[in-house]
Amino acid sequence: MATRWGICSAGKISHDFTVALKTLPAEDHQVVAVAARKLEDAQEFARKHSISRAYGSYEELARDPEVDVVYVGVIHPYHLNACRLFTNAKKNVLCEKPLAMNTKEVKEILDCAKKNDVFLMEAVWTRFFPVSVEIRKLLAHGEIGEVKMVRTDFGVPLLHVPRSVQKDLGGGALLDLGIYCLQFISMVYNGEKPESVQASGVCLETGVDETVVVMLRFSRNRMAVFTCSAGVQLPNDAIIAGTKGTIQVLSSMWSPTSLVVNGKETQYPVPEPYLPLNFPNGTGMRYEAEEVRQCLLKAGAQ
Ligand code: ISD
User: Fold this and answer.
1) Do 288 and 93 form a contact (C-beta atoms < 8 A)?
2) In Å, what is the CA distance from 9 to each residue of 31, 50, 69, 271?
3) Closest ligand 1 atom, CA of 96?
4) Where does the Gfo/Idh/MocA-like oxidoreductase N-terminal domain lie (predicted)?
5) pLDDT at residue 302 tops 90
């Protein structure tokens, strides 16, 4: 039986996610409904992606009995309300990153999902790319010895984008871009908590961070450093340095298709989209979507 998706919001990221879903077999994934705050936006989105039902409110999507899982693509200050709504309606949820604005909100979302016994996942799509799967395999096999240093960055000039600079829209480099660097470092160090974190940054007049440099120290003298910036373009790659070699993820490290292991490069291309995308390698969201399906099947939740 196919996993039946409902899409919450008709914005850019929802567009890319829907295009990515359609690169997967139709017998496994179907998009059955879309909701936006304005009905016309939902209808336009539905027309573009051949989706049968369009709603002018998220509540209607939450009530749709044919939706197994909702993709939440609204901007981050709205994640809490959306996750509350859908999990309380007993829907499984894949919510865009960052899951929420702060720890308190994250806890509330997790509690809601637990209370309603539904599946919830933060859409850190990077984790499910074949490149990331390969990195975890290489590290587990000790291919580059003991990792001593991880360095990565993510910087894109986004000062013209309201959601990147306005506080009430969840602006700031760390929440939007730094999260990709942090999740990468956390993946390499297998989820270990750092012993110390030192950070320095500069803020915009709006009160959100423009550029942040972060140093992390882990047990056994292992280190990591990352920079994120909404002000300037950075290389956007990542390096894992071990005692016996290096692994490099070429740009774009958050949606990676190219891996260099001890100087040897391998490509892992993503499928071509049927419509132009907003984010590099956007069809790579198919891997997180398939992960959701596998988790639901394993839990007997569909
Ligand atoms: O892939 C992404 C993503 O999740 C973002 O938030 O790229 C963006 C950044 O805003 C850069 O465009």
Assistant:
1) no
2) 13, 16, 14, 24
3) 4
4) 4-121
5) no
